[in-house]
Design brief:
Radius of gyration: 18 Å
Structural class: alpha+beta
Organism: Crocosphaera chwakensis CCY0110
Number of strands: 12
Helix content: 25-40%
Shape: globular
CATH topology: Cyclic Phosphodiesterase, Chain: A
InterPro entries: 2H-PEstase_DUF1868, Cyclic_Pdiesterase
CATH class: Alpha Beta
CATH superfamily: Cyclic phosphodiesterase
Protein name: DUF1868 domain-containing protein
Strand content: 15-25%
Number of domains: 1
């Protein structure tokens, strides 16, 4: 289901075009994952890079992202964006299971969590056995992307090797028959991103033209500066309770990318 390297880069680049922003801003919605700017219960599991608070490799990258988030909040409508706490900034490598599907799974099978951990561990081992080219996995900021319920930073691979590593990791996960038996399957094309905030109150008179200009101005800043690069060295399974808390557990499987 995931695309080739060049198709991925072209698709994500198209998401930063003014015409795309215009269409997307016409269809934004407030996020149901929050009520009165507070996260609601939204349990599940995902495979991600270590969040900012646990990432010792990308300190400079996430510091810059924190500054960008602060600048955005200052420029846009009050209460429009519910900011993600910077300490939880991360890159999702593979969506697994969440909300009602997760609740139903653990009610049906009391061993579901352990089975999920074992299956992901097997996927990680399968990935590590692949004869992949050696080298760092580096992704860089392309620009802001407007998702239906969130404002995010979009990332593209610095080279084909970096893309292939994530492509193969996702393939090892989604083609795992034990995961499929647990009801987990790929539902989305991969769009590498780090969420800055979710949409809260959307005013009826929201100045979409002004918001588009703000987004484009931030993108221009990235074009003019040295690319901000995220080093992907590790992926791990984490449980989340809501969109602000991704729980660390030493028993969770990890993989070197």
């Amino acid at each position: 289901m995931d695309e080739t390297y060049q198709i991925y880069v072209n698709r994500v680049a198209s998401l930063t075009l003014p015409t795309t922003y215009q269409n997307q801003l016409n269809n934004i919605q407030n996020s149901p994952k929050f009520q009165q700017k507070q996260p609601v219960p939204f349990p599940g599991y995902t495979v991600l890079t270590p969040p900012y608070q646990d990432d010792l490799v990308n300190e400079t990258f996430y510091h810059q992202l924190t500054l960008i988030q602060q600048q955005l909040i200052q420029k846009i409508e009050p209460n429009f964006l519910i900011p993600v706490p910077p300490e939880s900034f991360h890159l999702t490598l593979a969506d697994l299971i969440w909300e009602d599907n997760y609740r139903n799974a653990v009610q049906t099978d009391q061993d579901f969590n352990q089975k999920l951990k074992q299956a992901i561990s097997d996927s990680f081992q399968a990935y590590e056995k692949l004869d992949l080219e050696k080298g760092q996995c580096q992704w860089q900021i392309l620009g802001l992307l407007v998702f239906p319920r969130a404002l995010v930073v979009g990332l593209v691979p610095c080279n084909e090797l970096s893309y292939n590593k994530i492509f193969q990791l996702r393939r090892s996960i989604y083609q795992n028959q034990e995961l499929i038996k647990l009801g987990i399957e790929q539902q989305y094309h991969f769009t590498a991103h780090i969420t800055l905030g979710y949409f809260g109150e959307i005013p009826d008179d929201l100045d979409k033209s002004s918001l588009e200009s703000i987004i484009l101005s931030f993108n221009d800043q990235w074009i003019e500066k040295k690319p901000q690069v995220l080093m992907l060295e590790q992926g791990e399974l984490r449980k989340f309770e809501n969109m602000m808390r991704f729980l660390s557990d030493q028993s969770n499987p990890r993989v070197r990318i």
